[in-house]
Amino acid sequence: MPPFLAAVAAIIGPQHLLTQPQDTAAYALDYRRRYQGLPLAVALPGSTAEVAALLQLCQAHQVAVVPQGGNTSTCGAATPDASGRQLVIGLRRLNRLRAIDTANDSITVEAGMTLAQLQQLAADAGRLFPLSLASEGSCQIGGNLSTNAGGLAVLRYGTMRELTLGLEVVLPDGRVLHQLSALRKDTSGLDVKQLFIGAEGQLGLITAATLKLFPLPTAHATAWLGVAGSQAAIALLSALRQAFGDRLTTFEIMSQACQQLLDKYHPGQLPFIQPWAVLVELSDSGDSQALQQQLVDWLATQTLGDGVLAHSEAERQRLWQLREAMSETQKRDGPSIKHDIGVPSSAIPVFLAECEAALTRAFPGVRILAFGHAGDGNLHYNISFTRPDNADLFEDEDSVNAIVYELVYRHQGTLAAEHGVGQLKGHWLQRYQDPLALQLMRSIKQLLDPQGLMNPGKWLSALGDE
């Protein structure tokens, strides 16, 4: 064994160092199978002290580090390159509950805990951790923080940035930032933990977090509604906010093309197919039946298409399963050019109309699948063509992206609303981000990681030198 790897094994134990191709293969390929790397090895530390020792060792030997959680990134943010010289640090062994304080509604967990495990810990304590993602069974808290994940309940609870009270982070030189405070108010200087949320492991390695908990809702009112168009959907969103305030937890939209695709692979499960479908959920304390009746009474005053209300938890879960099946159904149907974009909710209808017109002019026969979290303006806007098997789909990717992103930024939006930037979108970020913001990002990277060893090849690297 080479001296460097022998030193790694001495820190974490030989059984936690993976070097054989059959053992490292799962860490070398991204979720969408677009990026294939070749790691030097995979290290699985079991404590913050071991992570700190690893980063000190890597800096001394000039070995680059790729932090990896559940490996659910859709933009190659956690994939090593093909050089065979980057050490993947997997966090699955850092999965402990450190503290839970129900009086303060806070919980401290390690970064390798899966989101589903954290949700269950909160529920067992009679509390809610509201982040909810389709990948929650495998994605890890460190990855959620590193991409500032949002998911299905941002409308009410916010992204991971809003859900985070404190962090523990190992810096590239091995020093440990201890900021696991559970305070909600602290004006003692700059809030430095915010640097690491959304940084995709390029400034340091998050090892633990203190997060907000909320009262566990006891009442839900969930409805699948049909509307005549995206403008009607956004008008409904505004009216629901006015009527129900922060009890409106979720507002999801799905185009007719998405509904037709779901019906193709899940026949008989959709309640109906309309120009647009909306999944609405209210949550509160008290009794579900009373909340459901409030929603029914209010909907009776609106002009809508078909609608279905969930009268039981089983019916509620069936409606949610339809929404959560969309991404996997599209993957099953074939490749697509995916966009994780965000625009102000009020701009969604005009963006959709303008972008469809522009793409149709440029690519006759284009198929657009638009769905997502309209309550916070985050759309999954995915493109495929009618050509057989979409064989040459990605040859057109840059041209498609240029059209989509130009319109996104015309409407004051973003090209990365919740999945991060990774190695997929760095050059686009450089084109559209404010130049001064880019300069500040480069300066922070240089300050914290002057040797460029933390997750190289991702978007901060793509920004280049000033």
TrEMBL record:
Cofactor: FAD
InterPro entries in the cross-refs: FAD-bd_oxidored_4_C, FAD-bd_PCMH, FAD-bd_PCMH-like_sf, FAD-bd_PCMH_sub2, FAD-linked_Oxase-like_C, FAD-oxidored/transferase_4, Oxid_FAD_bind_N, Vanillyl_alc_oxidase_C-sub2
SUPFAM superfamilies per the UniProt record, alphabetical: FAD-binding/transporter-associated domain-like, FAD-linked oxidases, C-terminal domain
Similarity comment: Belongs to the FAD-binding oxidoreductase/transferase type 4 family.
Pfam families listed in its UniProt record: FAD-oxidase_C, FAD_binding_4
The protein's name in its UniProt record: FAD/FMN-containing dehydrogenase
Gene Ontology process terms (BP): respiratory electron transport chain
GO MF terms, alphabetically ordered: catalytic activity; FAD binding
Organismal lineage: Bacteria, Pseudomonadati, Pseudomonadota, Betaproteobacteria, Neisseriales
FAD-binding PCMH-type domain: residues covered: 35-216
Keywords: FAD, Flavoprotein
